[in-house]
């Protein structure tokens, strides 16, 4: 109960301070249990795409209702209308978009142009309609525009850059933390199986698999210097200068428009460091010092009708 009360206080404090609180959802927490002071998540409900429409509708409704009940006390006109998918997982699209719009959501901000991930939590945003300008989404594919769409996608701003652009103290710190975390993970069952199975057939399969894996990794590594990668405006990983340069590039892209264009950056409190704070402050100061060009805004301040008009013209 102490944990819940503390989180509620944080949410209310943010809204009272003029910030916004909207919905970010990881289904694995729905059946989580508090054991020995730590949350034990449900591994059977890890990603949104594996949920049915009915299940998604229920989860979104429950969490929206919770935020509304919590925040209506401090902001009478509070409305939960914006969504960010856990793990950026908005594909397959149909069930998620329908569950959102049927719950009154107007905006999603999970997509980033050219973002791509394989494996269980896979998505491919290579064909996203734009890297900066919002678009009404097609109910069957989040990357495509449909003028009749009920949900507006406001993408996380990205640029295509070479691997050298990703070199920063923030990113090196994150990489080191991930490597250390993985080294700490042990799987005794796997070790036991390897020790017990010393057959020649097993060893031959293991060697063949290792060589194939090595060739695949070598091929991928050899392509790294020549490829372009999706560079998100992530304040956990970007320097203040990189964020400012990204904003200036975005300004150039929309210089011929006369409407407000949202510049969305991303970050996570659990990996936020003192260094992140100093770099983010420099970016925020730059925005504040240029009020004739940029301004801070809430999603609720945006006139969503303009993002239908820009594509119709």
Characterization of the model:
This protein has 313 residues and is α/β, with parallel strands linked by helices. It folds into two domains: 2-164 and 229-312, TIM Barrel (Alpha-Beta Barrel), CATH 3.20.20; 165-226, no CATH class. It is 41% helix and 12% strand. The chain is globular. The N and C termini lie far apart (53 Å).
CA-based shape: globular
Distance between the termini: 53 Å
Largest sheet, in brief, is: 6 strands, mixed
CATH third-level topology of the largest domain? TIM Barrel
**Uncertain spans, ≥5 residues at pLDDT below 50?**
186-198
For the CA atoms, what is the radius of gyration? 22 Å
Overall mean pLDDT stands at 84
Strand arrangement within the widest β-sheet reads 1-4-5-10-8-9
Q: Would you report the number of β strands?
A: 12
Q: Quote the beta fraction.
A: 5-15%
Order of helices and strands: HEEEHEHEEEEEEEHHHEHHH
**Helical content band:** 40-55%
Q: Into how many domains do the coordinates divide? A: 2
What is the structural class? Answer: alpha/beta
Q: Count the helices. How many?
A: 9
CATH class of the largest domain: Alpha Beta
What would you say the CATH architecture of the largest domain is? Alpha-Beta Barrel
């Amino acid at each position: 109960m102490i944990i819940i009360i503390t989180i509620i206080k944080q949410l209310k404090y943010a809204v009272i301070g003029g910030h916004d609180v909207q919905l970010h959802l990881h289904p694995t927490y729905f059946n989580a249990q508090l054991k020995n002071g730590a949350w034990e998540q449900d591994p059977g409900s890890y990603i949104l795409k594996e949920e049915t429409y009915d299940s998604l509708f229920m989860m979104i409704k429950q969490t929206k209702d919770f935020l509304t009940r919590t925040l209506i006390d401090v902001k009478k006109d509070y409305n939960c209308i914006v969504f960010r998918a856990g793990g950026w997982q908005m594909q397959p699209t149909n069930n998620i978009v329908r569950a959102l719009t049927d719950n009154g959501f107007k905006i999603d901000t999970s997509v980033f142009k050219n973002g791509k991930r394989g494996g269980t939590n896979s998505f491919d945003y290579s064909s996203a309609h734009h890297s900066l300008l919002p678009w009404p989404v097609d109910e069957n594919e989040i990357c495509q525009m449909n003028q009749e769409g009920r949900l507006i996608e406001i993408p996380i701003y990205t640029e295509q850059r070479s691997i050298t652009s990703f070199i920063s103290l923030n990113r090196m710190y994150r990489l080191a933390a991930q490597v250390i975390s993985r080294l700490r993970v042990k799987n005794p069952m796997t070790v036991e199986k390897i020790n017990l199975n010393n057959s020649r057939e097993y060893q031959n399969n293991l060697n063949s698999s290792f060589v194939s894996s090595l060739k695949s990794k070598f091929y991928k590594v050899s392509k790294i210097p020549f490829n372009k990668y999706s560079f998100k405006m992530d304040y956990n990983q970007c320097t203040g200068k990189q964020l400012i340069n990204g904003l200036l590039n975005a300004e150039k892209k929309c210089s011929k428009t006369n409407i407000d264009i949202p510049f969305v950056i991303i970050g996570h409190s659990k990996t936020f460091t003192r260094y992140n704070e100093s770099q983010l402050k420099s970016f925020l100061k730059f925005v504040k010092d240029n009020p004739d060009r940029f301004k801070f805004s809430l999603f609720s301040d945006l006139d969503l009708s303009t993002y239908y008009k820009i594509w119709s013209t």
